[in-house]
Amino acid sequence: MVRTLSLLQREFRWLGKVLAFAGDFMNTEGQLFEDFFFDLLPIDFPYQYAQTSYTNTLEQVHAHTQSYFEDALGDSLSPRDIYFAQLAEQIILLLSLAPHLTPELFEGFRIKDAYGREVLQFGGVKLTKNFKGFLPTGHTAQFLLAGQNLTRRFIVQKILAQAHYFSQKGVLSLGKVSYGEPPLAGQLILSEQYLHLLTTGKPFQPQYSVDFPATLLTTDKTWDDLILRESLQKKVFTVKQWVTHYNEVKAILGNKVMKGFRLMMYGSSGTGKTLTAMLLAKHAQKPLYRININQIVDKYVGETNKKLEQVFRQASNKDWILFFDEGDSLFGKRSEGGGSSNERYANQEVNYLLTKMEEYEGMIFLSTNKDEAIDDAFKRRFESRLWFREPDDETRILLWKHFFTKGGLELSPGILLREIATHHDYRVYNAAWIEKFHRFCVLQTVAKGDQYIALEEMLEYLGQFKTG
User: Fold this and answer.
1) Cys bridge to 177: 114, 181, 358, 426, which one at CB 3.0-4.6 A?
2) With contact defined as beta carbons under 8 Å apart, do 277 and 323 qualify?
3) Are residues 356 and 400 in the same domain?
């Protein structure tokens, strides 16, 4: 953290010197502002500093600079143009970060020319409702970096285009402008994710809100805690291979063939669907966000789509796993024929979700208790479908032994877990029920101050828990 802040202070000190030349450049014809600030560059430009989230971000951006501009502009660019493009990327990143940390750097832009007019070249957004300083726009960056040179201006424009790394990876973007206005009039907006990353050095984890109705799920459990039928265990192993090697498979097959990974889990509640999702995310070392379906589905026309758009927009470029838990109301079957207006709108929402699923490059998990209610179009888009059935006798025996051989309990020799697991009164219970009953037994031993459970006590606890 100290290293990051020290480096950013150094960068902003340099940016301040660059900005100080703006007034001189405004009255200097026939010269590029670039000619001025090349003399200001550190000897070790662009980033021969200690490794921080800032320098790592620049390295990732600059690794794509040459190939991006060769695709965008052909081979007409000189090495000096590529060098300029990298410099422009660095300054644009700093311009988007500066209002958050050093807004006073832009005080010099709040001046007027000799005729008392606003300086058009500066661009900028001024005097917003809560922020009274100067907010740089795409035009601000273009003026600083290119002056009147159209080639340089075009390079800056391409840096701020949607195809550039900045936009593709969700680093920064241009704010929306009114219809007909130049796109570069939009404010330079650093994403919340990268603002957090560049200032703290830690990955961004959004909090539950109206705009992002999702909760980060984590678990301390391991694969040893997931006890399933043997046939399902084998299928889960294949899914583990998918989440582990997906990027390698995608690199071989290409983006047109592989775009994201989709997993559907269906079956009764309490059979291990959520735990499987958490363990897969933990194994893949990716954040797992469970989407609150109740907050997404809205009775008003168009509102569901808007909320879905917010979720996918925030998740884009972040390599998150989106987990739609019990997603029947979102992924339900479309009605056939014309139907009522409500049915048509519901069909539109399904079609919209299908489109967002296809666009999202990360992983999507879906769990449901009602496989038959899921639209076939969704089912076809899932690479893997796992059926979580109620445990058979052998699996249930393993579950009882798994839970009751831990937690500090001491069972009477007369308590035979195999007999309990296969007894007709208890064969209807699944993993979730057995785990809750285990916690109930631990509570009873704590309350009585004795970890030992006699046979008659176990039978009493089973009776209490069944009826409670």
Assistant:
1) 181
2) yes
3) no
229 and 117 part of one domain: no
Residue 205 lies in a domain: no
Q: How many CA atoms lie within 13 A of 206 on its CB side?
A: 24
**Among the listed residues 333, 324, 335, 334, the one whose alpha carbon sits nearest the alpha carbon of residue 294:** 324
Contact assessment for residue 324 and residue 369, using Cβ atoms and an 8 Å cutoff: no
User: Do 324 and 259 belong to one domain?
Assistant: yes
Say if CB 331 and CB 353 are below 8 A apart: yes
More confident call, 143 vs 46: 143
* Listed residue (14, 17, 11) closest to 57, CA to CA: 11
- In the chain, how many domains are there? 3
With tokens 């660059």, the residue in question is: 18
Q: How confident is the model at residue 210 (pLDDT cuts 50, 70, 90)?
A: confident
Six-digit token pair at 306? Answer: 């808007």
Q: How confident is the model at residue 361 (pLDDT cuts 50, 70, 90)?
A: confident
User: Beta strand pairing status for 172-174 and 188-190?
Assistant: antiparallel
pLDDT higher than 90, residue 256:
no
| Mean pLDDT computed over 433-460 | 92
Q: Which two tokens stand for residue 268?
A: 């009764």
